[in-house]
Design goal:
- By secondary structure, this protein is mainly beta.
- The chain is built from 1 helix and 8 strands; from the N terminus they run αββββββββ.
- It has one domain.
- The strands form 3 sheets. Strands 1-2-3 form a 3-stranded antiparallel beta sheet. It has a 3-stranded antiparallel beta sheet with strand order 6-7-8, with no helix packed on it.
- The protein is globular, with a radius of gyration of 13 Å.
- Bound molecules: zinc ion.
């Protein structure tokens, strides 16, 4: 099952973390937590050449990513994922989806 299939049905904010092919490193993808139905995909864990990507604390159940994710040229949502929960920033034009995924 590929990452896109693993995102299906998870609703706004649902995410997956996976190891890319070969030496391409780790990736994080989520359904945009605003509910716009876009997928957000970023490299994580500083395994990518030449050493770019978001910081990740290594937690697969309740991940923390740094710095924030700010979407450019689409819904413009701006958020952090901290200990598995989304932290919404006030400069986002849309509110966070009311049914956004939350860590148990
Ligand atoms: Zn969005």
């Amino acid at each position: 099952m590929n990452w896109r299939e693993r995102l299906e049905g998870k609703g706004p904010g649902g995410w997956v973390i996976w190891q890319g092919e070969g030496a391409s490193g780790l990736y994080f993808a989520c359904n945009c937590p605003c509910g716009c139905e876009d997928e957000v995909i970023i490299p994580i864990g500083y395994q990518h050449e030449p050493n770019y990507g978001w910081g990740w604390d290594g937690n697969k159940e309740r991940p923390t990513l740094t710095p924030s994710l700010r979407r450019i040229g689409s819904c413009a949502s701006h958020f952090n994922l901290t200990a598995g929960n989304y932290v919404w920033h006030g400069d986002s034009p849309r509110p966070i989806a009311p049914n956004v995924w939350r860590a148990a």
